[in-house]
Amino acid sequence: MIILSIDHGTRKLGLAVSDETGFIAAPLPTLRVKNQKEAIEGITQIADDVRAEMLIIGLPSGWEGKDSEQTTLVKDFAEMVKKATGLDYKFWDESYSSKQAEFGARGRKRANSDSEAARIILQEYLDWQREKPE
C-alpha cells in the first residue's frame, strides 16, 4: 500500500511517500502554495501521481493534550483533503519531527526540511505498523 504523508504548513507542505511494501519512506519536493485551495489541488494531484492509497498527516499536539489552534487547523485541513482525494487518513504525532528534520546528523541545516519532517512522520508510522502486535 502506497501512503502519502503530509506535514502541514500554511505556505509550505512537506510531503513524503512510502514504497509499495510499506517499508521505506522517501521525501518528495516541498509543495509551496499561496492558499488552502492551491494546497488541496496540489495534494490531490500528487496523491494521484504517486497512486496513494492512504494519507498520514502530521498532527501537532497541543499543550497538556488539548487541541491548539494549529491542531484544529490541521484537522479541518485533513477533512478537506479527504473530501478532495477520497483517501482515508490517519494522524500521527508530529512532535519534534520538524526540529529533527531541520538539522542533519552533523548539525547542518537541511534544505528540504519540510518534506524531511513528512518523511520522519511517515517512517515512524511505517515502523510502528510493522512492529505492532497482531
From TrEMBL:
A molecular function GO annotation: nuclease activity
GO biological process, one term: rRNA 5'-end processing
Keywords: Cytoplasm, Hydrolase, Nuclease, Ribosome biogenesis
E.C. numbers: 3.1.-.-
Main location: cytoplasm
Pfam families per the UniProt record, alphabetical: RuvX (PF03652)
EC supergroup of this enzyme: hydrolase
Top-rank taxon: Bacteria
GO cellular component, one term: cytosol
Compartments, as annotated in UniProt: Cytoplasm
Residue ranges of every copy of the YqgF/RNase H-like domain listed in the record: 1-101
InterPro entries (alphabetical): RNaseH-like_sf (IPR012337), YqgF (IPR005227), YqgF/RNaseH-like_dom (IPR006641), YqgF/RNaseH-like_dom_sf (IPR037027)
Protein family (similarity comment): Belongs to the YqgF HJR family.
Role summary: Could be a nuclease involved in processing of the 5'-end of pre-16S rRNA.
Name of the molecule in the record: Putative pre-16S rRNA nuclease
Annotated organism of origin: Candidatus Dojkabacteria bacterium
Gene: ruvX
